[in-house]
Amino acid sequence: MHQGTMKAWLDSSHLSGANSTYVEEMYEAYQDDPSSVTDDWRAVFDNLPVVNGSAIDAPEAAHSKVRDYFRSLALDTRRGGASRVSDPELDAKQVKVLQMINAHRFRGHQNANLDPLGLWKREPVKELNPAFHGLDADDMDREFNTGSFAHGGETMKLSELINALKATYCGSIGAEYMHITDTEEKRWIQQRLEPTMGKAQLSKEEKTRILEGLNAAEGMEKYLGAKFPGAKRFSLEGGDALVPMMREILYQAGEAGTKEIVIGMAHRGRLNLLVNVLGKRPGELFDEFAGKHKAELGSGDVKYHQGFSSDFETPGGNLHLALAFNPSHLEIVNPVVMGSVRARQDRRQCDTGLQVMPITIHGDSAITGQGIVQETFNMSQTRGFKIGGSIRIVVNNQVGFTTSLHQDVRSTEYCTDIAKMVQAPIFHVNADDPEAVAFVSRLAVDYRNTFRRDVVIDLVCYRRHGHNEADEPSATQPLMYAKIKKHPTPRKLYADQLIAEGSLGADDVTGMINDYREALDQGECVVKEWRPMTLHSVDWSPFIGHDWDVAYEPTLPMERLQSLASRLTDVPESHKLQSRVAKLYKDRSAMASGEKLLDWGFAETLAYATILEDKKRVRITGQDSGRGTFFHRHAVLHNQNDGTTYLPLRNVADEQGPIDITDSVLSEASVLAFEYGYATAEPGGLTIWEAQFGDFVNCAQVVIDQFVSSGEQKWGRLCGLTMLLPHGYEGQGPEHSSARLERFLQLCADHNMQVCVPSTPAQVYHMLRRQVVRPMRRPLIVMSPKSLLRHPLAVSSMEELANGTFQNVISEIDEQDPSKVDRVVFCSGKVYFELLERRRKEGLNNIAIVRVEQLYPFPHAEMDAELEKYQHVKEFVWCQEEPQNQGAWYCSQHHFWTAIPKGATLTYAGREASAAPACGYPELHNMQQQQLVNDALNLK
User: Fold this and answer.
1) Cβ(266)–Cβ(236) under 8 Å?
2) Residue 460's closest CA among 415, 493, 420, 428?
3) Which CATH architecture has domain 204-529?
4) Which end of the chain is more exposed for a tag (fewer CB within 10 A), N or C?
5) Is Oxidoreductase among this UniProt entry's keywords (predicted)?
């Protein structure tokens, strides 16, 4: 771009005249990161011409040369379109004004009035002072071009501009958004903040609604404190603005067309939101405080873990609200909520995320301290887990239990800095300014719906009591609590404000307090927007009241299976397969035609095909699920020419259920929690999480302990999640052998989940189908194989799939004469084939091998039937690959003792007890493996 062209371009641009000096700001950004400026500006800076014999060649060119160059082109068109060369001195001031505007956008939040207690000691930001920019008292009455500052027109007196900047960026709202790289998003936020100076334009009715929310928040806590003194309730007092905030979010979301909202939160304020937002009857809560419970609801849980569902009326239509149940592992609920939201969006076929929105409420200490927050942010825009953004609220009471936040809890300026990893805008807001709270609440909803990205509200407040009501906070935070004792409540401050401005009378305020107290006394719902639930989008009734042995029809016609098998092997000729994959699909074609027996991968895929043909949904996630960690599944086929993908499972029928197979983010905890949440909101289909290696499941142990194994018993939450955990001892060491079977069996009780170890392709086919076809929804934990995926004996016929069923116990397959058997070996999984091959090699006809394919719930009836022919046998052995203190031996032997004949003995054959799950030396592994097989078969 030569000089004449650039001059013409500047003349025609919105930056002509003195405003063109705004380019220095752009130029500085360009020097830091060329991609941070728009394409047209980047073109200008990339093609800066030679000035006075020296090239202005960014980034080496001096700023003064750039300024001088653009000044020489700047034309002042502010007066009737007339053009003249700008006054250099005035132009230099203009540059400084624009820099000052930008400084407030970048750093105004650091001097905002955020802390209700005034305890934050923050140094003044020098860049926010006009003097820093060379602007003095003589400039205050001068008019300057305000660039893109969206308030007061194109020009403003400097004094008015400074007041507007302070009001917008240094008031009760501290807006952090300049870390966002997308210019459109930044401009959108500026257009919402700057014209109003961050002030909500509220009607009397809206102000009254906010006060009602504060009144309810305070009234609820005082009522509970008086009625149940000393009882734990994790009071919201100090953060009372959370109640009107949530109500404003619901109203704004309803007007935008949202139909469902799923909420996740920890303890603080939970009881308050249950009563004052979701509409739980206070009388029901009081009964819980009094210790009453319903025996048929299982073991139950404490009050501040409880979930709830209701409908909430807004001017835009009713919303269905679901507050997720949450254990004390605070932040782990976040991915559970996201998974539930994704399931609801998928069911509604909502790709934008508009119809279902998540809200997660965090503690300031927890959001920085728990890694699951980072994991959930990381998955927020990924293909398999995106949900159109979430609204994340931090109830920032500035203390973590007894820990002072700034010194000990984090290494960042704000607890919300973690959100910058996904460029989420962050709106810090003073909780004692409820109108500012309402403003950012609406802003957050609109941003999320516009850009489909996460947005964070940092509600800066305080905690009037200790961590719970039994704590004495002044023992550890004496100065903070001395100040809190003297500080008026948020309700009092806002009520006084409304009375002073004439929006409400003192009698009106008193009447509101009395009315709410009377409503609590009556024990009925206190939320006027509450409506009886009619918006359920899924029906769980077909799955309620059934146990794991409920009858179902497992078989399918052979013709249907053969047709599906043919479709699964039909790959377009234009889709070039990798050579090994092509060989695999050629083998599958032979299996489909009956020329070969079915291997594991094809039988598994056929199970999915039958479910899809029944118009049920299949969802599979894991770090290598498309291909399969062990190169067996190949459900997603990659074209070797252009990288496109083809899923045969999406082409099994003209009308079929949807299937998603996603290679997930590198996480176990967040992904498993997401899939748990998905399965709790989608009972009709098959939801699978697959570990890359079963050993890695221990990274998600909190999800297993707090949700998968106990969710039904604690909360009555049914869930049909299936977990595929590769398990088997092949000499790959202590982190690639064991899926920690013993941990799952330890957690088994009350028929809470199924633990299966399938050993044939037919078994995995029937097991997966059973999980969908049977009208029972409980988690299925599968110790899935590795070497068996291609084992020559681990094959099945198409007839076994068509006419069979899942066998909880598989009897002896060789033609052993039961009368000659004097030793019965029980086992599960891969070791069976090693026992079988060794027995055949040794010609042993006195030993029977019985496979237990479902370890829990233990199949007593099937085992009794199998052992009927061995009642004369006195020697029974349990054989396992795992060390003695691991695997099934300790947790399941009582079931074997119950099954064997009276007077018989039960012994153990397996590795000795070990602190590690497996050895790391191949030679030692082989020796141990041979020894346990010998012990089981009574060989020396």
Assistant:
1) no
2) 428
3) 3-Layer(aba) Sandwich (3.40)
4) C
5) yes
Q: Is 3.40.50.11610 the CATH classification of the domain at 809-936?
A: yes
Q: Residue 411: how many CB atoms within 10 A of its CB?
A: 7
Model pLDDT for residues 537-582, shown as the tens digit of each residue: 688 889 999 998 899 999 999 999 999 999 999 999 999 999 999 9
| Pairing assessment for the beta strands 403-404 and 399-400 based on DSSP bridges | antiparallel
Structure-token pair, residue 571: 């790959």
C-alpha to C-alpha distance for 649 and 657, rounded to whole angstroms: 10
DSSP sequence for 534-580: ----S--GGGTT--TT--------HHHHHHHHHHHT---TTSPPPHH
Confirm or reject CATH 3.30.70.20 for domain 558-729+738-803, answering yes or no.
no
Let me know: does 415 contact 367? Beta carbons within 8 Å: yes
Q: Which of 422, 264, 368, 373 is nearest to 667 (CA)?
A: 373
- Kind plus residue range of the DSSP H or E element containing 419: none
481-517: pLDDT as tens digits: 788 899 999 999 999 999 999 999 999 999 999 999 9
Mean pLDDT in consecutive groups of 10 residues from the start of the chain, 940 residues: 46 43 60 59 61 42 50 41 54 91 96 93 93 95 92 91 97 97 96 94 95 95 85 84 97 96 90 93 84 63 72 94 87 95 96 96 89 95 96 89 72 93 98 97 98 97 76 78 90 97 95 94 93 80 90 93 96 95 96 96 97 97 93 95 96 96 94 97 96 92 94 92 96 93 96 97 98 96 95 96 96 93 97 97 96 98 96 98 97 96 97 95 95 95
Q: Can you read off the two tokens belonging to residue 93?
A: 């001031």
Would you state the structure tokens that stand for residue 511, as one six-digit string? 């009447």
CA 74/CA 752 separation, integer angstroms: 75
**Domain locations in the chain?**
1-86, 204-529, 558-729+738-803, 809-936
- Radius of gyration, alpha carbons of the chain: 34
- 8 Å CB contact between 262 and 312: no
Q: Which residues contact 376 (CB under 8 A, 6 or more apart)?
A: 331, 334, 335, 338, 670
Question: Residue 857, preceding bond cis, omega within 30 degrees?
Answer: yes
| 3-class SS string, 5-66 | HHHHHHHHCCCCHHHHHHHHHHHHHHHHCHHHCCHHHHHHHHCCCEECCEECCCCCCCHHHH
What pTM did the predictor assign?
Answer: 0.90
Q: Is the peptide bond before 59 cis (omega within 30 degrees of 0)?
A: yes
H-helix or E-strand spanning residue 262: strand 260-265
Task: Using CB atoms within 10 Å of the CB of residue 27, give its burial: 0 to 12 exposed, 13 to 18 middle, 19+ buried.
Answer: buried
Assigned token pair, 914? 């070990």
CA distance readout (Å), 264 to 297, 308, 338, 392? 22, 11, 9, 10
Beta strands 143-145 and 155-157, pairing class? antiparallel
Of residues 79, 94, 75, 93, the one with CA closest to residue 16: 75
Are 558-729+738-803 and 809-936 the same fold in CATH?
A: yes
| Nearest Cα to Cα of residue 702 among 673, 740, 722, 675 | 673
Distances in whole angstroms, Cα of residue 746 to Cα of each of 299, 502, 782, 884, 885: 18, 65, 15, 14, 12
163-166, Cβ contacts within 8 angstroms, sequence gap of 24 or more: 164/194, 164/197, 165/100, 165/101, 165/104, 165/108, 166/104, 166/108
> Whole-angstrom Cα distance, residue 8 to residue 4?
6
- Residue recorded with tokens 């305020």: 509
* Residues contacting 32, CB < 8 A, separation 6+: none
Alpha helices in 412-477 (DSSP H): 434-451
CB 554 within 8 A of CB 806: yes
Distance CA 424, CA 419 (A): 6
